[in-house]
Structure formats: structure tokens, C-alpha cells
């Protein structure tokens, strides 16, 4: 029962977000309003249609959640205490993609990212934590820079080295 | 796996790892480099940003130039692709790069002359660039299917005048130079035609051959032209087509906009004089070379070298002319 | 006849074979890395092809595409992370089979199906290009609009589970697809000033994020000791690691049907291999003898999308060779390479200079063979790679995918997008929202919206709807065919309800 209530709240929140989006964010993000001549439908048509469908779907979901008919679910594997790993993983990935790579370049950033992730996932042997990411980035360098001619972001710390 | 099997696998793994390490070391040493050890420009590797996907016309030309420039300038020249927004993203990175001559960019007309009038682009084409040199001009003819009833551009205009809103035409993108120039031309002729926005010259060509549209203004038309599936009725640029000199141009017909679709090299604003001089000399040599001409010929472009002064002048003039034409068209917001 | 032999001999020599071999190997490797596509690698080859012998470079490019379509299914099956969008549908049945220890069988099915699909469409290309091209060229916006709309409707049935979640997922996909410059007016939609969004959200960051990264995040929910285990184990029974002759034969009807779907989809520019794979999967499930096996590891469910996505490759060249018009990125790259060599494809080429065309045909057929042989060797290699513990493999996948997502456009923004979609995809899967439907909405909306609006403009220009429809024979045929189909489907559904046949089982994937 408690999970059903939590679910209803979540759906209600999504529904509110969708309505807000449709009424405020959408018109703000698409300045070109009505269809001019020779334009077929307005640029707002499709997004509006999709938002309407989303609102309807969420409303239906809210209704069925409130009336207790639960949507069919898979049985949960494992316990919630294992959630720290994926959250940690997400945080590491976003940190590097957002800031890390731009700051220290892809190679140094990638080695750190791989090392951190490996440790997060339970690897404790120090030589593995250091050597494996290095080899990984060496492989990436070979494949991307030498074979494919794609230049990954550099840190600019050492001008000569491709790091 | 048996013990012997896993033992062998272990040895194989180690060997693999060892080989990798060797490779990595070799690559790192090979990768260090590009320092020429001298003080004058260029003293290290240069990067040219191409705002389009690899394999396209501009990218191919730029790589050919980069290869030759490496030899002439004595420093490695890399090409980096940074696509997005019809070229505006890559062009933006060039504008923001440090003005030391080690980051340059391939530029073409649309992101500089056209796009800023319609979109919020992260650069000012008048202030933010040093236009180093132009190397190619591409023709952008007005095409019809070979079975079309229009024998000449005049026929087309006559039909459009008699049947407002019925002439269906397209170009490879929206708000690009061919689109706007043709709109301006139609406006001057007081013609009302139906523009069908399409993405890419392939869609336009398929539309011409399949009878979906009557007229198209694009630049990649070599195949169907050779096959006799399409005919050229006009050219939008100021110069007539070399193999079809009798085809009228927008300039000859005194239309408000007769844009030159160019490919060129540019850098951020206020590049040092020695950088400009070095590239002026290099590009002059490259564009005069045989290998460059043959690439140009095969990709349907015309070699049209302009040095920095001329190119800068031309681009700024183009930008002004376009703004003026758009103002007249009333399309400027 | 002589020119045919001359042409073939251009492609059947050691240099060309070496090029094909290299292309297949590179293609399979690149395809198996999430985020990297063969199109990218080939694009980088095009300028260099000017300096190569053309009959090494061009076969190599063709081989790269074929190899990558096989390579991309390997991580799809073993890790649930497709290497390229085209393998997205292979995950649905491929991974469950691998989880049961039969990964070897799954990979062999994929190899067989891929090479079959490739060969089918190559043969159609060789003998039927002219006819197919002539029909395909008459498909304009109105025809596309109808096709895509019905494809969308039929693919919705891929989802078995609560319908409101399915609708929400599709709606989200449609909305995401609308971000970017409006296809008709060119004005920005939901870009909020970010120039990197002008082209919209890239398919690769989106798809790799949604399917591959989210899967890795999901796997991280396991207890730590399980992460120290090998990623996938393979049963040691021989029949779990290969396809028997009987199984080969049993797959043939599905393979023929899926290859046909792929060929037709490929002949129509703009649709792509991902769409073909999903449609073929859906059709295979709809007409299957044992539909309840789908989603649990049905061999037909693996073979159908693979045959279809490979078949698109050969068919892509149909408009190129028939008219000189490239249908998609791959064909455009090949066109570029041909032009640099001074070869202009089109009907004139067939008449005046057919040797290069025949050489291309020969190279493609040869490449299929090489693909099969090299694939046989790739499979044991893949097994080795995947027996690395999960806590090492998953970080490797994440870092490689970052590099791949960056390489596409030279943009860190794409890498950020990829991880954000990974997060969203993980949350979605946790709460039973189907990511596959979001993807289908995302992929099909641009074509659908553009085609519908173009059609409206064209109808205006044609003096009204009646005149418009009357002027397009293909449109009339399509409308009639679809009316008939709708009637049939409705009757079938009514019959099922009347006879009280059970509802479809809950999605267990």
C-alpha cells in the first residue's frame, strides 16, 4: 500500500511537470507560433500533440494507481542497499563528461574515470586499478587517434605529448 | 576450461598485454612531435577545424590542403571535425580560438553570410574572423527534370506567373543562400511559388526525378546530370557555368542577390601578420597545384583563389548585400 | 559479357581481397564498440582514397559497413549494449539467450542471418536495381508519411505491458525528436540558445545512452561479489554453441521475409537499418509459430532483425547506382569515393563504363563471404573478452563509449547527453517504462513530421487534395493497400475477442 501511494505521488509529480511544460516551457522554447502560409502545420503542433498524449497517459496512470490496479511489474532483484553503486557510477560519469574531460583532457580524465569506477565496483588490487585504465586508454589512443584520426580533447598541460 | 587451457590463456593474455604496452610506448613517442624547434610561425602543429561531417566536399578539400600545407609550412596540420547546426558550431569554435594561428577553420558561405540573419549564432561574422583565403567556388544551378515542360528559365517564370502558388521548388536546406537568392528573384519577378523545404540535395534530386517538385536549386548534381535525368536552367552565382556558358545567371538577370558559394580558410580575428602571410603564400601554391585542380574538378568545384585582403573584402561585401536583400524581402526579424 | 568479366577481375585480385579483409576486420571491431560506427571510419577514409588504388579503397569501405553490422550485434547479445543503433532490436532476444549460457548459439545465428541478409540484398541489387529504383523514386512525402505512420502504429505492438506507460514513452520520444531546428521553417525549437542542439539530439548519444549506458548502470545494482564474476558464461555443451543444420533450415522462412523487409526499407532513402530491424522483428513475432518464445531467446527473434539490418546495406546502393543519388550516409560516402576516382555512378555508367559497377558487385559478394569467415573467428575472441570480470568490463565500456560519442561530432556535449540519457534510461527501465518505444518515437518522428508537413504544402500547391492524390499513382495504391490491411487486422482482432483467446503475456525482458 505504501509503495502504491509513493507511486501515485511520483506519477502526479510527472503529470504536473508535463502540464507545466506544455503551458509554459513549450511556448517559450518555440517562438514561431502559428503556421504561416506554405508551412503545413505549425512548429508547435507536434510537440503539443506529444505533450497532450503524455498528459493523458500520465493522467490515466495516476487514475489506475489511485484505484489500486497496479501495473504489472517484474519482481525486484536484490535489495535497495545496492543502490549506492549505480548512483556512484552515474555521478562519476556525469562529473567527467561534464567537467573532468574538459579540464584535464580525455586521457588523464579517462584513466581517472576508469580507475574510480573500477574501485567503486569492488576491485581492490592496486596494480589492477592503475594498470588496467592505462592500458584501456592506450588502446583508445591507438584506435581513435592512430587508426581513425580522431583527436580526443587534450589537457594542454604538456604541449608535446598527446595527453 | 582445463588447467592447461587456462594456463595457455594466461600466457596469451600476458603476451597481448605486453604487446599493447610496447605499442602504446611507440605511439606516444611517435605522437610527440610536431615541434619544429624554430621560433617563427609555425613552430608547432596546426589544427584546422571542419564544421562538417568527415567525407563531405569541404572536409575532403580541407584534408587535401592540410596534407600539402604540412609540407610547405614544415609543421603538421591536423584536421578536426566539429559538426552541428549547419556548420555554426564549428565556426563558433574557430571564432573563440586563441589568435595565434595554430587553430584555423574551414568556412563556407552559409554559416557566415546566411545563418546569422536567422539564428542566434555564437559569433559575429563581421568582427570575429580573419578571412585568410578562398579556394573554391561551387556552382549552384537551377535544375529541372529532363521530362519537364520548361525549356528555359523564362518558360519557368511564365508558368509561375500564370499559375500563382503552383510552381513547386526546393533547395537543399532552409534559409541558405540558394533559397534566399531564389526567393528574392521571385519577389522581383512578382511570382508566387510554393517552396517545399527538403533536407539534402539527394531528397531534392529524388523529388525532381519522381515528379514531386518542378524545380530544384542544389550543388551536388553530377550523377543525374551526366545521366541526362536533369537539365540546368540558370545559375545563381555571379559567374556563368564553365561548361554551360549560355545558361543565364542571376547576376545577368539583375536579381537582388547573386551569391557566391565559397569554400575558404579563416581564423579568429586579429591574427598576426606573419600567420596571414604564411597562409597567403601556402594557399597560392596549393591552389595552383595540379592535384588540387583535379580534386576540384572531380567534386564539381571551381578553383578560385583569393588572398586575405580580397577574401576579407568579398566576405564582408557578401554579408552586407545579403542583409540588404533580406531587408527588402522583409524577412529580417 | 566481356565487360562483366573485366569488372569482376578488378575486384577479384589479391589487393582487393586484402582491402576487403582489412575492411571486414576493422568493421567488426569498430561496430562492436558502442558509440563508434563504420560510417565514421569510412568517412575518414574517403579523402585518403584519392591516394589509394581505388580497387583497394572502395571494396574496403563496402566491407567495413558489412563488418560493422555484424560486429554491433555482439555486444548487443552479450552485454545488452548494442554497438550501433541497428543492433537495438537484436538485444531483445539475443541477450536472454546469452544469459541462459547459449551465447555461442546466439552469435552464430547472428552471423548466419547477417550474411544471409547481405547476400539477399546484394543479389537484388545486382539483378533488380533498375526496377526497384524506378518504383522507389516515385515515393514522395505523401507516400513516406503513410508508410512511416503505419510503421509507427505497428511497432507500438512491440510493447506488452501497461499501455499508459507505453504511450508516455512514445510521447517522450516524439518530444525529444522535436528539439532542434524546425525542419520546415528553420526556426529553433526548444534549443534555448544552445547552438549544439540546432541539429537536434544525436541518435548515437541518445541510443547508446538509453540502451547501453543505462544497462551498465542497471547492472551496477548487483551485489559486489557478483561484479567480480565473469560477465557472461557460456555453456560447454556443443549444441549450445553452434547452429545445427536443422536450425539453419528452420530459420530460412524468417530470413527470407526479414531480408525482403530490409531490402525494401533500404531502397527507400531516409528510413535506415534501425527501423528495418524493428519492423522485421515485429513481423517475425507476429507470424511466428511460437510467439511466446519471443523475448526469451527465440532464434527467429535474433535472426529477423539481423537479416533486415544487413539487407539495408546492399539496398542502399540501389538509388546510387540507378540514378547517382545517394540514399543515406553510407551511400554518400561511397559516392564521394567514386567521384574522386572519376567514376560517376548512374545509368550512363552502366552503359558507357560498366566495369566499376561490376567490380563493386563482385566486391560486395566477396565481402559477404569474408564477413562469414572472419566472423567465425571473431566469435571465440568475443567470448574471451567477455569473460573478463564485470567490474573491469563495465568501466571499459563506459570509457570507450565516451570516446565514441565524442568522436561523432567532436563534441563533449554529446558525451554529456549520452550519460544523461543513460541515467534517464536506467530510471525508466526500473519503473517499467519501455525505452524501446521511446526510441521508436524518436527515430520515426522526424521523418513523419517532415513528410506530413511537406505533403500539406504540396497539396496546397496542387489545387486541392483530390487533384493531389490523383496525380500520384503510388499514393493511390498505398492507400488502397492500407485500407485492405486495416480491414483484415480489425477482423482478426474482433475474431480473437469473440473466441476469447488469451491476452498477450506480460513483457518479461
Please summarize what this structure is.
By secondary structure, chain A is an all-alpha fold. Chain A is 67% helix and 0% strand.
Summarize the topology.
The complex is a heterotrimer of chains A (163), B (333) and C (509).
Chain A: H1 2-29, H2 45-66, H3 84-120, H4 126-147
Helix pairs in contact in A: 1-2, 3-4
Chain B: H1 3-31, E1 46-50, H2 57-73, E2 77-81, H3 88-96, E3 103-108, H4 109-114, E4 129-138, E5 141-145, H5 153-162, E6 168-171, H6 177-188, E7 194-195, H7 201-210, E8 215-217, H8 222-227, E9 230-235, E10 261-268, H9 273-288, H10 290-298, E11 302-306, H11 308-329
Helix pairs in contact in B: 2-9, 6-11
Chain C: H1 2-11, H2 14-31, H3 38-48, H4 54-71, H5 73-79, H6 90-136, H7 141-156, H8 163-177, E1 180-181, E2 188-189, H9 203-219, H10 224-227, H11 245-267, H12 273-286, H13 299-323, H14 329-340, H15 347-352, H16 355-386, H17 390-409, H18 412-430, H19 435-461, H20 465-470, H21 473-498
Antiparallel strand pairs in C: 1-2
Q: What keyword list fits this structure?
A:
heterotrimer, A: 163 residues, mainly alpha, flat, C: 509 residues, two-stranded antiparallel sheet, 21 helices, 73% helix, disordered C terminus
Structure description:
The complex is a heterotrimer of chains A (163), B (333) and C (509). In chain A, 67% of the residues lie in helices and 0% in strands. Chain A contains four helices and no strands. Chain A has 163 residues and is an all-alpha fold. Chain A has two domains: 2-66; 80-147, no CATH class. Chain A is flat. The longest helix of chain A has 37 residues, at 84-120. Chain B is of the alpha/beta class. Chain B has helices spanning 3-31, 57-73, 88-96, 109-114, 153-162, 177-188, 201-210, 222-227, 273-288, 290-298, 308-329; strands spanning 46-50, 77-81, 103-108, 129-138, 141-145, 168-171, 194-195, 215-217, 230-235, 261-268, 302-306. In chain B, the strands form two sheets. In chain B, strands 2-1-3-10-4-11 form a six-stranded mixed beta sheet, with helices on both faces. Chain B has a five-stranded mixed beta sheet with strand order 7-6-8-5-9. In chain B, α6 (177-188) links the parallel β6 and β7. In chain B, α2 packs across α9 (273-288) and α6 crosses α11. The radius of gyration of chain B is 24 Å and the shape is globular. The model of chain B is unreliable at 1-6 and 26-34 (pLDDT under 50). Chain C is mainly alpha-helical. Chain C has one domain (2-498). Helix content of chain C is 73%, strand content 1%. Chain C has helices spanning 2-11, 14-31, 38-48, 54-71, 73-79, 90-136, 141-156, 163-177, 203-219, 224-227, 245-267, 273-286, 299-323, 329-340, 347-352, 355-386, 390-409, 412-430, 435-461, 465-470, 473-498; strands at 180-181, 188-189. In chain C, strands 1-2 form a two-stranded antiparallel sheet. In chain C, β1 and β2 (188-189) form a beta hairpin. In chain C, α9 crosses α18 (412-430), α9 runs antiparallel to α19 (435-461) and α11 (245-267) packs parallel to α13. The longest helix of chain C has 47 residues, at 90-136. Chain C is globular, with a radius of gyration of 23 Å. Chain C starts with a helix and ends in an 11-residue tail after the last helix. The chains are: A mainly alpha (163), B alpha/beta (333), C mainly alpha (509). Chains in contact: A-B, A-C, B-C. At the A-C interface, α1, α2, α3 and α4 of A face α2, α3, α8, β2 and α9 of C.
Amino acid at each position: 500500500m505504501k509503495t502504491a501511494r509513493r507511486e501515485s505521488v511520483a506519477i502526479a509529480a510527472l503529470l504536473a511537470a508535463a502540464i507545466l511544460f506544455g503551458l509554459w516551457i513549450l511556448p517559450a522554447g518555440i517562438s514561431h507560433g502559428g503556421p504561416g502560409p506554405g508551412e503545413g502545420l505549425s512548429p508547435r503542433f507536434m510537440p503539443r500533440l506529444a505533450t497532450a498524449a503524455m498528459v493523458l497517459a500520465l493522467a490515466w496512470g495516476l487514475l489506475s494507481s489511485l484505484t489500486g490496479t497496479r501495473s504489472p511489474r517484474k519482481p525486484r532483484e536484490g535489495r535497495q542497499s545496492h543502490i549506492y553503486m549505480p548512483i556512484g557510477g552515474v555521478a562519476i560519469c556525469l562529473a567527467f563528461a561534464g567537467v573532468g574531460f574538459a579540464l584535464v583532457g580525455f586521457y588523464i580524465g579517462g584513466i581517472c574515470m576508469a580507475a574510480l569506477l573500477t574501485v567503486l565496483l569492488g576491485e581492490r588490487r592496486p596494480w589492477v586499478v592503475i594498470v588496467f585504465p592505462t592500458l584501456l586508454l592506450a588502446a583508445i589512443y591507438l584506435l581513435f587517434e592512430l587508426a581513425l584520426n580522431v583527436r580526443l580533447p587534450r589537457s594542454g598541460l604538456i604541449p608535446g605529448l598527446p595527453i | 576450461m582445463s588447467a592447461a587451457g587456462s594456463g595457455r590463456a594466461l600466457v596469451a593474455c600476458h603476451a597481448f598485454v605486453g604487446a599493447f604496452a610496447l605499442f602504446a610506448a611507440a605511439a606516444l613517442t611517435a605522437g610527440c612531435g610536431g615541434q619544429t624547434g624554430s621560433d617563427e610561425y609555425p613552430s608547432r602543429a596546426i589544427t584546422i577545424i571542419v564544421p562538417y561531417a568527415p567525407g563531405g566536399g569541404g572536409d575532403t578539400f580541407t584534408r587535401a590542403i592540410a596534407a600539402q600545407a604540412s609540407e610547405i609550412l614544415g609543421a603538421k596540420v591536423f584536421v578536426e571535425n566539429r559538426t552541428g547546426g549547419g556548420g555554426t558550431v564549428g565556426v563558433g569554435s574557430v571564432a573563440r580560438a586563441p589568435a595565434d594561428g595554430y587553430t584555423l577553420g574551414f568556412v563556407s558561405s552559409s554559416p557566415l553570410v546566411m545563418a546569422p540573419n536567422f539564428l542566434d549564432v555564437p559569433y559575429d561574422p563581421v568582427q570575429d574572423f580573419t578571412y585568410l583565403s578562398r579556394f573554391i567556388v561551387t556552382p549552384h544551378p537551377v535544375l529541372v527534370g529532363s521530362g519537364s515542360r520548361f525549356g528555359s528559365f523564362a518558360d519557368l517564370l511564365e508558368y509561375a506567373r500564370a499559375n500563382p502558388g503552383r510552381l513547386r521548388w526546393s533547395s537543399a536546406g532552409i534559409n541558405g543562400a540558394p533559397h534566399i537568392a531564389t526567393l528574392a528573384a521571385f519577389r522581383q519577378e512578382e511570382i508566387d511559388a510554393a517552396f517545399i523545404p527538403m533536407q539534402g540535395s539527394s531528397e531534392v534530386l529524388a523529388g525532381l526525378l519522381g515528379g514531386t517538385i518542378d524545380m530544384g536549386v542544389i550543388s551536388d548534381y553530377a550523377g543525374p546530370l551526366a545521366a541526362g535525368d536533369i537539365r540546368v536552367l540558370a545559375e545563381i552565382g555571379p559567374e556563368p557555368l564553365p561548361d554551360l556558358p549560355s545558361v543565364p545567371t542571376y547576376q545577368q538577370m539583375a536579381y537582388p542577390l547573386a551569391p557566391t558559394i565559397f569554400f575558404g580558410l579563416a581564423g579568429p580575428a586579429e591574427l598576426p601578420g606573419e600567420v596571414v602571410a604564411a597562409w597567403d603564400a601556402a594557399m597560392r601554391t596549393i591552389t595552383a597545384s595540379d592535384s588540387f585542380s583535379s580534386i576540384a574538378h572531380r567534386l564539381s568545384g571551381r578553383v578560385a583563389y583569393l588572398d586575405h585582403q580580397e577574401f576579407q573584402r568579398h566576405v564582408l561585401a557578401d554579408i552586407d548585400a545579403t542583409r540588404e536583400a533580406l531587408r527588402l524581402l522583409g524577412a529580417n526579424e | 559479357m566481356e565487360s562483366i568479366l573485366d569488372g569482376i577481375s578488378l575486384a577479384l585480385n589479391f589487393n582487393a581481397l586484402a582491402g576487403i579483409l582489412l575492411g571486414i576486420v576493422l568493421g567488426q571491431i569498430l561496430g562492436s564498440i558502442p558509440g563508434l560506427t563504420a560510417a565514421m571510419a569510412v568517412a575518414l577514409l574517403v579523402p585518403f582514397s584519392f591516394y589509394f588504388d581505388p580497387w583497394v579503397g572502395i571494396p574496403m569501405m563496402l566491407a567495413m559497413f558489412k563488418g560493422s553490422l555484424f560486429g554491433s550485434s555482439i555486444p548487443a547479445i552479450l552485454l545488452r549494449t548494442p554497438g550501433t543503433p541497428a543492433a537495438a532490436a537484436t538485444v531483445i532476444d539475443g541477450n536472454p539467450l546469452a544469459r541462459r549460457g547459449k551465447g555461442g548459439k546466439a552469435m552464430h545465428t547472428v552471423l548466419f542471418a547477417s550474411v544471409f541478409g547481405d547476400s539477399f540484398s546484394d543479389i537484388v541489387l545486382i539483378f533488380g536495381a533498375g526496377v526497384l529504383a524506378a518504383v522507389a523514386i516515385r515515393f514522395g512525402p505523401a507516400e513516406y508519411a503513410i508508410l512511416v505512420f503505419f510503421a509507427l502504429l505497428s511497432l507500438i505492438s512491440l510493447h506488452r505491458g501497461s499501455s499508459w506507460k507505453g504511450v508516455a514513452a512514445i510521447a517522450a520520444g516524439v518530444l525529444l525528436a522535436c528539439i532542434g531546428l524546425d525542419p520546415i521553417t528553420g526556426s529553433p525549437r526548444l534549443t534555448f540558445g544552445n547552438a549544439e542542439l540546432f541539429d537536434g539530439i544525436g541518435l548515437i548519444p541518445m541510443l547508446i545512452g538509453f540502451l547501453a549506458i543505462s544497462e551498465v548502470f542497471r547492472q551496477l545494482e548487483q551485489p559486489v561479489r557478483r561484479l567480480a564474476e565473469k560477465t557472461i558464461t557460456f555453456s560447454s555443451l556443443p549444441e549450445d554453441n553452434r547452429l545445427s543444420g536443422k536450425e539453419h533450415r528452420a530459420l530460412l522462412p524468417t530470413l527470407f521475409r526479414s531480408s525482403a523487409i530490409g531490402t525494401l526499407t533500404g531502397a527507400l532513402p531516409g528510413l535506415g537499418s534501425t527501423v528495418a530491424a524493428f519492423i522485421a522483428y515485429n513481423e517475425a513475432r507476429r507470424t511466428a509459430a511460437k510467439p511466446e518464445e519471443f523475448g526469451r531467446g527465440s532464434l527467429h527473434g535474433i535472426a529477423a532483425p539481423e537479416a533486415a539490418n544487413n539487407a539495408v546495406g546492399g539496398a542502399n546502393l540501389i538509388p546510387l547506382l540507378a540514378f547517382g543519388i545517394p540514399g543515406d550516409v553510407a551511400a554518400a560516402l561511397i559516392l564521394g569515393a567514386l567521384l574522386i576516382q572519376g567514376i560517376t555512378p548512374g545509368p550512363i555508367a552502366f552503359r558507357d563504363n560498366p566495369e566499376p559497377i561490376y567490380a563493386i558487385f563482385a566486391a560486395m559478394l566477396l565481402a559477404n563471404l569474408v564477413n562469414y569467415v572472419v566472423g567465425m573467428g571473431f566469435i571465440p575472441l568475443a567470448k574471451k573478452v567477455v569473460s573478463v570480470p564485470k567490474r573491469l568490463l563495465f568501466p571499459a565500456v563506459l570509457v570507450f563509449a565516451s570516446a565514441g560519442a565524442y568522436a561523432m561530432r567532436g563534441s563533449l556535449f554529446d558525451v554529456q547527453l549520452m550519460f544523461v540519457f543513460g541515467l534517464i534510461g536506467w530510471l525508466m527501465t526500473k519503473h517499467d517504462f519501455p525505452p524501446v518505444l521511446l526510441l521508436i518515437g524518436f527515430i520515426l518522428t522526424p521523418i513523419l513530421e517532415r513528410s506530413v508537413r511537406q505533403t500539406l504544402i504540396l497539396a496546397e500547391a496542387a489545387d486541392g487534395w483530390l487533384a493531389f492524390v490523383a496525380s500520384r499513382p503510388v499514393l493511390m495504391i498505398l492507400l488502397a493497400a492500407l485500407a485492405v490491411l486495416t480491414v483484415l487486422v480489425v477482423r482478426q482482432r474482433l475474431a480473437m475477442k469473440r473466441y476469447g483467446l488469451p491476452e498477450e503475456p506480460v513483457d518479461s525482458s
